[in-house]
Amino acid sequence: MLIDHIRVTIENGLLEEKEIQYYIDAIRHSAKGKSLKSLSFRIADGHMDLRYSFQGFPFERIRRVSTQADDSAKRYIG
Q1: Cβ(47)–Cβ(41) below 8 Å
Q2: I need a labelling partner for 35 at 20 to 30 A (CA). Which of 4, 24, 66, 78 fits?
Q3: How confident is the model over 26-68, as pLDDT tens digits?
Q4: Residue 17: partners with Cβ closer than 8 Å, 6 or more residues away
Q5: pLDDT given at position 68
Q6: 3-state secondary structure of 52
Q7: What is the pLDDT, as a whole number, of residue 18?
């Protein structure tokens, strides 16, 4: 699917569009000046892997986010 001209894929589950938009906004905020190209979510027991890449950069960034009841982990994407 495309959200804000970004290719988004989700493995092993579903996410609401507003949650996907939250992560897009957080990544854009932490990577000022870079154009986000793609974002992939892989949902597993107790965590979610985020993989994202930027236009013109030959590598991906990978982050793991806890999916436990405490949403404080979602506030930081390094």
Answers
A1: no
A2: 66
A3: 999 998 888 999 999 999 888 999 999 998 866 666 677 777 7
A4: 3
A5: 73
A6: strand
A7: 94
Residue 67 to residue 71: CA distance in whole angstroms: 7
Tell me what pLDDT residue 66 has: 77
Backbone angles phi, psi at 50, to 5 degrees: -110, 130
CATH of domain 2-75: 3.30.160.100
- The single-letter code of the amino acid at 75 is R
For residue 68, give the DSSP letter.
S
CA separation for the pair 63, 77 (Å, rounded): 7
- Which residue is it, tokens 């994202």? 52
pLDDT value at position 45?
A: 86
